[in-house]
Amino acid sequence: MSVRKLKPITPGQRFRVVNNFEEITTNKPEKSLTVGISKSGGRNQTGKMTMRYTGGGHKKKYRIIDFKRNKHDVEATVKTVEYDPNRTAFIALLEYADGEKRYIIAPNGIKVDQKVIAGESVEPNIGNAMKLKNIPLGTVISCVEMKPGQGAILARSAGSSAQLTSRDGKYAIIKLPSGEARMILVECYAMIGSVSNSDHQLTVSGKAGRSRWLGRRPRTRPVVMNPVDHPMGGGEGRSSGGHPRSRNGMPAKGYKTRKKNKGSNRYIVSKRK
């Protein structure tokens, strides 16, 4: 996993840092596991814009990912490691012993022709999926369920991982990427290893056009808006804009927005940093 800096032969390449994509083995997805995906341009069913700064982007297809890993005790072979335009992590194509094919989030270090399996009594090897009650303490995990059978919810993006620190009765204590320690039922599944493409955060796009390819339109800074458009708008010249807050008046930069009586607060052992 590495990145490389391009020679500054054009203004767009001067600061660009690209991913080497060394782990990628093919550029053609499995056709049976892809579906068309339509774009809304940030507009709802009546045509009204409800999400700003969204629109355009290169045409892409959605890859159907197996987040549940519910094909238990059937060994699968890794056929390819592929790029997915819908997420930051790479994906791996598995072919099971009975011929079925599925995509999973590729863990760091997975190789083609490697064998992976999901089940209760399997080895804690990279790419295998197990229940939290059977994973050795201290293991680095990813793609963690929050409810049994729900499918992976936590630690799914590029380079992220959680750590199983302890178990207490029917709960396992997991340290999440944010630093939060949280209780999760031991019946939930998790994948062994961290998520692939850990150098994703080191890449630099180099030019605004690359954001347009990803479907991001230019964003207007609040301080240059009028008072009718944003709480930080208005003023003569380059005024500071007052206290940083969102368009609907919610304070930003340090203001906690989590509800104090949220039901899942009782599962948090220690808050994030």
UniProtKB/TrEMBL annotation:
<keyword id="KW-0699">rRNA-binding</keyword>
<keyword id="KW-0687">Ribonucleoprotein</keyword>
<dbReference type="Pfam" id="PF03947">
    <property type="entry name" value="Ribosomal_L2_C"/>
</dbReference>
<dbReference type="GO" id="GO:0003735">
    <property type="term" value="F:structural constituent of ribosome"/>
</dbReference>
<dbReference type="InterPro" id="IPR014722">
    <property type="entry name" value="Rib_uL2_dom2"/>
</dbReference>
<dbReference type="GO" id="GO:0015934">
    <property type="term" value="C:large ribosomal subunit"/>
</dbReference>
<feature type="region of interest" description="Disordered">
    <location>
        <begin position="33"/>
        <end position="53"/>
    </location>
</feature>
<feature type="compositionally biased region" description="Polar residues">
    <location>
        <begin position="35"/>
        <end position="48"/>
    </location>
</feature>
<dbReference type="InterPro" id="IPR012340">
    <property type="entry name" value="NA-bd_OB-fold"/>
</dbReference>
<dbReference type="GO" id="GO:0002181">
    <property type="term" value="P:cytoplasmic translation"/>
</dbReference>
<comment type="subunit">
    <text>Part of the 50S ribosomal subunit. Forms a bridge to the 30S subunit in the 70S ribosome.</text>
</comment>
<feature type="compositionally biased region" description="Basic residues">
    <location>
        <begin position="255"/>
        <end position="273"/>
    </location>
</feature>
<feature type="domain" description="Large ribosomal subunit protein uL2 C-terminal">
    <location>
        <begin position="124"/>
        <end position="251"/>
    </location>
</feature>
<dbReference type="InterPro" id="IPR022666">
    <property type="entry name" value="Ribosomal_uL2_RNA-bd_dom"/>
</dbReference>
<dbReference type="InterPro" id="IPR014726">
    <property type="entry name" value="Ribosomal_uL2_dom3"/>
</dbReference>
<keyword id="KW-0694">RNA-binding</keyword>
<feature type="domain" description="Large ribosomal subunit protein uL2 RNA-binding">
    <location>
        <begin position="42"/>
        <end position="118"/>
    </location>
</feature>
<dbReference type="InterPro" id="IPR005880">
    <property type="entry name" value="Ribosomal_uL2_bac/org-type"/>
</dbReference>
<feature type="region of interest" description="Disordered">
    <location>
        <begin position="200"/>
        <end position="273"/>
    </location>
</feature>
<dbReference type="InterPro" id="IPR008991">
    <property type="entry name" value="Translation_prot_SH3-like_sf"/>
</dbReference>
<dbReference type="InterPro" id="IPR022669">
    <property type="entry name" value="Ribosomal_uL2_C"/>
</dbReference>
<dbReference type="InterPro" id="IPR002171">
    <property type="entry name" value="Ribosomal_uL2"/>
</dbReference>
<keyword id="KW-0689">Ribosomal protein</keyword>
<dbReference type="Pfam" id="PF00181">
    <property type="entry name" value="Ribosomal_L2_N"/>
</dbReference>
<protein>
    <recommendedName>
        <fullName>Large ribosomal subunit protein uL2</fullName>
    </recommendedName>
</protein>
<dbReference type="GO" id="GO:0016740">
    <property type="term" value="F:transferase activity"/>
</dbReference>
<comment type="similarity">
    <text>Belongs to the universal ribosomal protein uL2 family.</text>
</comment>
<dbReference type="GO" id="GO:0019843">
    <property type="term" value="F:rRNA binding"/>
</dbReference>
<comment type="function">
    <text>One of the primary rRNA binding proteins. Required for association of the 30S and 50S subunits to form the 70S ribosome, for tRNA binding and peptide bond formation. It has been suggested to have peptidyltransferase activity; this is somewhat controversial. Makes several contacts with the 16S rRNA in the 70S ribosome.</text>
</comment>
<feature type="compositionally biased region" description="Basic residues">
    <location>
        <begin position="209"/>
        <end position="220"/>
    </location>
</feature>
